[in-house]
Inverse folding.
C-alpha cells in the first residue's frame, strides 16, 4: 500500500509538474489480478483498484492499517467501472455491472472480487474502492446503476450539462462518513463541477473513467487564487484536499466517481467560486 502524507496550500506555489502529479494524481490503479491500494493521510482515506482477470481476487489485509482484516474499523464504497463482475461479502454475492455501487460496512471480513465475462467485449471488471475509518456499522447495501438519487445539473450553453447519481449519502445508502456517487457528462458537455468549489470539512477523490484512450481531462486544483492543473487520463484518480478546488474540462465526454469523507455528509456543504474570481 502506497502512503502519501498530507499537504497544505503553502506547498502549491513551489511545486513543479512532477511533484504535483506525485502528490495528487493516482495513475495505474488497475493491475491484472491484484489489489493496488493507496493511503492518503488527508482524512485517512484509502483508495484501491481491483482488476480480476484470470480468477477471483480477495481483498487482503494491509499492514499499514494495523488490523486483522480490512474492514475491522473501516467502511467503503465500491463502483465497477469495467465489465460485468461480482463482489462476495462474507458469503453474499452481489452481481455488479458497469456503474453499479456497493457499500460495504464496518465488520465485513471476507471480500472477494471477480469478473464474470473477462474475455467479453467490455473486458474484465474494474472495481474502484474508496474507504474511510468508521465508528458505526451500517449494512452492506447494493445500488444498481441509475437507482440512486439522480440530479440533473448544468447548462448545455456552458458545456457542463451532467447527470449526477448519488449512491451513498445522508438521504440514500447510509454510512458512517463515506459519501459517493457517479457523474456522467452529456454528449457535447466537457466541464465538470463548474463553478468550482471547496469544502473545507472533507477530502474528495475523483476517479475519471469512460474517457477515450486519446482524450484527457484538465483537472484544476489548488486554492482558488493559486490554481494549478493536472492532465488526467482514463481511470486515473485525483486526490483533492479539503482546501483545494476540484473542477475539470475534458477533450471528450466522460464520467467520474466522486467520493468524500470528513466532517459531515451534507452534499451541499461547499464554498463555490466564480471562474472570474479564480487565478
Amino acid at each position: 500500500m502506497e502512503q502519501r502524507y498530507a499537504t497544505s496550500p503553502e506547498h502549491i506555489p513551489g511545486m513543479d509538474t512532477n511533484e504535483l502529479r506525485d502528490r495528487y494524481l493516482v495513475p495505474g490503479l488497475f493491475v491484472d489480478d491484484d489489489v493496488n491500494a493507496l493511503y492518503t493521510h488527508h482524512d485517512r482515506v484509502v483508495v484501491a483498484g481491483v482488476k480480476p482477470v484470470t480468477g477471483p481476487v480477495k481483498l487482503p489485509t494491509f499492514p499499514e492499517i494495523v488490523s486483522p482484516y480490512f474492514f475491522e474499523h473501516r467502511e467503503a464504497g465500491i463502483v465497477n467501472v469495467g465489465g460485468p463482475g461480482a463482489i462476495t461479502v462474507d458469503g453474499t454475492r452481489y452481481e455488479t455491472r458497469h456503474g453499479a455501487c456497493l457499500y460495504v460496512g464496518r465488520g465485513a471480513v471476507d471480500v472477494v472480487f471477480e469478473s464474470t465475462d473477462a474475455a467479453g467485449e467490455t473486458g474484465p471488471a474494474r472495481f474502484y474502492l474508496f474507504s474511510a475509518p468508521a465508528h458505526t456499522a451500517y449494512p452492506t447495501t447494493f445500488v444498481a446503476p441509475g437507482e440512486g438519487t439522480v440530479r440533473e445539473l448544468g447548462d448545455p450553453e456552458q458545456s457542463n450539462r451532467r447527470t449526477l447519481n448519488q449512491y451513498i449519502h445522508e438521504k440514500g445508502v447510509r454510512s458512517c462518513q463515506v459519501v459517493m456517487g457517479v457523474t456522467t457528462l452529456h454528449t457535447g458537455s466537457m466541464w465538470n463541477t463548474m463553478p468550482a468549489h471547496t469544502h473545507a470539512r472533507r477530502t474528495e477523490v475523483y476517479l475519471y473513467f469512460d474517457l477515450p484512450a486519446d482524450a484527457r481531462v484538465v483537472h484544476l486544483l489548488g486554492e482558488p487564487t493559486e490554481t494549478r492543473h493536472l492532465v488526467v487520463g482514463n481511470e486515473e484518480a485525483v486526490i483533492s484536499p479539503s482546501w483545494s478546488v476540484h473542477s475539470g474540462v475534458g477533450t471528450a465526454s466522460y464520467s467520474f466517481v466522486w467520493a468524500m469523507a470528513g466532517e459531515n455528509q451534507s452534499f451541499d456543504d461547499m464554498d463555490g467560486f466564480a471562474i472570474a474570481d479564480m487565478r
